[in-house]
Amino acid sequence: MDIIYRTDVMPDTAQVIEVYKSSGLNRPIDDEDRIAEMYSNSNLIITAWHDDKLVGVARSLTDFCYCCYLSDLAVHDDYKQRGIGKKLIALTQQKMGDTVTLILLSAPGAMEYYPKMGFDTITNGFIINRKR
Q: Which CATH number fits the domain 4-116, given the four candidates 3.40.50.150, 2.40.50.180, 3.40.50.720, 3.40.630.30?
């Protein structure tokens, strides 16, 4: 099965929501306008496609020179365990180069996944959680 990775296409909001639903990533999937705004305000989106089906996405906010926040990494449940998430991370790193720090907040269920992908656990972070 050939998976095509793209940085030149904005995925349809309904397709993104389907990937989020299937992957289990906790996002506001009942608010299509909010998902669309999340994507329109992001400046690095890497997608994975099987034919015309969106099967994975990495959505980031970055300055392209110092830091990159990988805010969403999701792979459709039917396509997990095929290296798609790993490839999306690698392509994000490739776009950033070796002078940019890649940062993410892990979903609780993925805490063991990211160290396997080369991420170090950090203890010097802080967060103010959203109210909704």
A: 3.40.630.30
Amino acid making up residue 100: V
The pTM of this model reads: 0.88
- 96-119 pLDDT, tens digit per residue, is 999 999 998 877 777 787 788 888
Report residue 102 as tokens.
């890649």
Q: What is the pLDDT of residues 115-130, one digit of tens each?
A: 888 888 888 777 777 7
User: Rounded to the nearest 5 degrees, what angle is found at the Cα of 93, between the Cα atoms of 87 and 99?
Assistant: 165
